[in-house]
């Protein structure tokens, strides 16, 4: 990164990678990415690389096209949130289903690739797939004649546990939103449609991520340029480009 008076300023980055819950993370409901970006104002850029419907198999194919060593050198934290689609029943939804063992292997490959580009494993956060609410999903899609579409919370639970196993084995951080959601008898308030996070669910995920992200970013300065009340109006260029804050 370059400070005041230097050339281009390259901000530290938090890299969010996953499927639809990541893609929608700047939406009104699924706003956990927005909350992170606001929390990290003038410290980090939050980069969202989410792809609705993707599984870990899709994810490991596209990640090399999204993350390279040049980008990785500025990444202070990376989240990986995949598994809700992998956890489809093979008989009902074979085009998205990824077996439990393959899911674990794919997650390991994703972590290994990120490490190979220069992101240390302890700066990677594996997030479990959120709990799935079958009745809410069926109600939300009822006008289309959908039922569970091959999704069951019992399957999601297995993939959630697999995600935590990979985190332990690979030395990454982990966030277990599945277990936190299941502490509530009616966890549907955390979901907008039975699968994707509501605003309340997004705030829950943000609060779970916050202490880890704080650990990674607390040493970072507020980025380079001075606060407005410290700008010398009589010498704008000097005060803007030669100030610590």
UniProtKB/TrEMBL annotation:
<dbReference type="InterPro" id="IPR045136">
    <property type="entry name" value="Iah1-like"/>
</dbReference>
<dbReference type="InterPro" id="IPR036514">
    <property type="entry name" value="SGNH_hydro_sf"/>
</dbReference>
<protein>
    <submittedName>
        <fullName>Isoamyl acetate-hydrolyzing esterase 1 homolog</fullName>
    </submittedName>
</protein>
<dbReference type="InterPro" id="IPR013830">
    <property type="entry name" value="SGNH_hydro"/>
</dbReference>
<feature type="domain" description="SGNH hydrolase-type esterase">
    <location>
        <begin position="16"/>
        <end position="202"/>
    </location>
</feature>
<dbReference type="Pfam" id="PF13472">
    <property type="entry name" value="Lipase_GDSL_2"/>
</dbReference>
């Amino acid at each position: 990164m370059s400070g005041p008076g230097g050339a281009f300023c390259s901000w530290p980055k938090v890299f969010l990678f996953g499927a639809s819950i990541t893609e929608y993370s700047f939406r009104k409901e699924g706003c956990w990415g927005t909350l992170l970006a606001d929390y990290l104002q003038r410290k980090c850029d939050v980069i969202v690389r989410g792809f609705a419907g993707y599984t870990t198999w899709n994810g490991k194919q596209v990640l090399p096209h999204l993350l390279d060593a040049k980008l990785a050198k500025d990444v202070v934290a990376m989240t990986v949130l995949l598994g809700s689609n992998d956890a489809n029943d093979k008989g009902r939804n074979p085009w998205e289903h990824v077996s439990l063992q393959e899911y674990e292997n794919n997650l390991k490959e994703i972590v290994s690739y990120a490490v190979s580009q220069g992101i240390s494993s302890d700066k990677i956060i594996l997030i479990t797939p959120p709990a799935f609410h079958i009745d809410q999903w069926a109600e939300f899609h009822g006008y289309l004649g959908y039922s569970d579409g091959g999704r069951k919370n019992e399957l999601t639970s297995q993939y959630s546990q697999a995600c935590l196993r990979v985190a332990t084995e690979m030395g990454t951080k982990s966030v277990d939103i599945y277990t936190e959601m299941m502490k509530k008898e009616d966890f549907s308030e955390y979901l907008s449609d039975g699968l994707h996070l509501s605003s309340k669910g997004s705030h829950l995920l943000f609060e779970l991520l916050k202490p880890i992200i704080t650990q990674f970013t607390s040493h970072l300065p507020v980025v380079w340029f001075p606060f407005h009340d410290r700008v010398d109006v009589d010498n704008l260029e000097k005060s803007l480009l030669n100030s610590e804050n």
